[in-house]
Amino acid sequence: MQVLLSGLKILDIEKKEETKADILINNGLIEKIGLLKASDYKSAKFYNLNNNCAVPGLFDMHVHLREPGREDEETVETGSNAAASGGFTGIACMPNTEPAIDSAEVVNYVLQKSKNHLVDVYPIGAVTLGRNGKNLAPIAELIDAGTIAFSDDGVAVKNASILRRALEYIKMYNGVIIEHCEDESLAGGSMNESLTSTQLGLPPIPTVAEDLIVLRDILMTEYVGGRVHIAHISSKKSVELVRQAKVKGLSVTAEVTPHHFTLTDEALKTFDTNYKMNPPLRTKEDVNAIIEGLKDGTIDCIASDHAPHSAEEKDMEFIHAPNGILGLETQLGLAITELVHKNHLSIFDIIEKFSINPRKILNIPIPQIRIGEKANITVFDSDLIWTVEVNKFKSKSKNSPFDKRLLTGKSIAVINNNKMYFEDEYISLV
Questions:
Q1: How far apart are CA 33 and CA 19, in angstroms?
Q2: What are the structural domains, with CATH classification, of the chain?
Q3: Do 369 and 377 touch, CB atoms closer than 8 A?
Q4: What is the Cα 230 distance to its own chain's centre?
Q5: Could you write out the DSSP letters of every residue in 159-224?
Q6: pLDDT 10s digits, 304-336
Q7: Taking the alpha carbons of 248, 61, 315, 100 in that order, is the dihedral positive or negative?
Q8: What is the SS3 assignment for 383?
Q9: Is 72 a catalytic residue?
Q10: Which one of 265, 305, 349, 381 is the catalytic residue?
Q11: Which of 30, 61, 185, 306 could join 358 via S-S bond, C-beta 3.0 to 4.6 A?
């Protein structure tokens, strides 16, 4: 089957150039790129994409799919549907499921559930058995089964000795440890420690809880080698610590979520539990430091930390509600709105942080929009103004603080694995 995508702006991220062209896809492969006449391809299915941008398929390296264990909140299928709707052709799923992704059996289960979907799903394995911080998970077995990284996400690796052993083991495979940086002795609060937390009377989490583990992990990486990736960085000090580590040439990378460069802890004055997350929303000073870290390359990529929760769980007293919000279906729009249209980053920078850098960190092949390559493409409109409607999300859960928010920039279509998602419909390309 031939598909003709007409009227595209193809963005070359490396050269930071755009080319107006059409793309002919034949049985899932890119057959031609150029100014093509629809009349020459009468048997092809034709799509006029109205001067929208075409880029290598976006990738989110921090997603919670909840399956196995909490299929009432999300499943591999519904999470993948949310990813496609948000413009992503690949996601990496975190291991804090029930049971944790700490065995080949659970890895195989997730991979089987994701089989034949447009969106590629890559499991991340637990660093320790049950994510309990006591004994290393079977690293080699997990790698053989298909994991691409390791994390005890939800908590940091519990002590320096376990972290050292994990780094030494995993670096033999050129793997990476993804760290949720939070000192447990300072954790357990409901929001960032600030004047606002005092005013609201909510138990706080200080930024130093994050900073301490970021510093520990950097020092351990410097001592034994290996690679550490800082998940959902949120504090000014942590950004500076990562910046210093990169100056030293250490293999330390970092990601940030859209809510951490978009919102501050002032939002919690509504006591809306959809603003409760971990790490918590910080101050304007932290937000400014994060944006600067994105601009100078200290922060390598943007990821959603997509964390579905049921309405029953979120609809309770603030201190008892679980942490986390949805992100897959809003993060591209938030990034373009807050970073591109406010002149912090170019659209090329955004795609580098959404598509190229996550795959580099995880050692995953980067899609190429070239003749002969498999079609793995995201098409988006960087100027489309739209309103977030949570009740229309493809995710099984609805816990987002961005409902009814006006955003600029939205995915139009995604193509991968011989499938296309366009206008809420999956279309086979074979």
A1: 10
A2: 2-54+371-381+408-428 (2.30.40.10), 56-362 (3.20.20.140)
A3: yes
A4: 13
A5: -HHHHHHHHHHHGGGT--EEE----GGG---SEESSHHHHHHTPPEE-THHHHHHHHHHHHHHHHH
A6: 999 999 999 999 999 999 999 999 999 999 999
A7: negative
A8: strand
A9: no
A10: 305
A11: 61
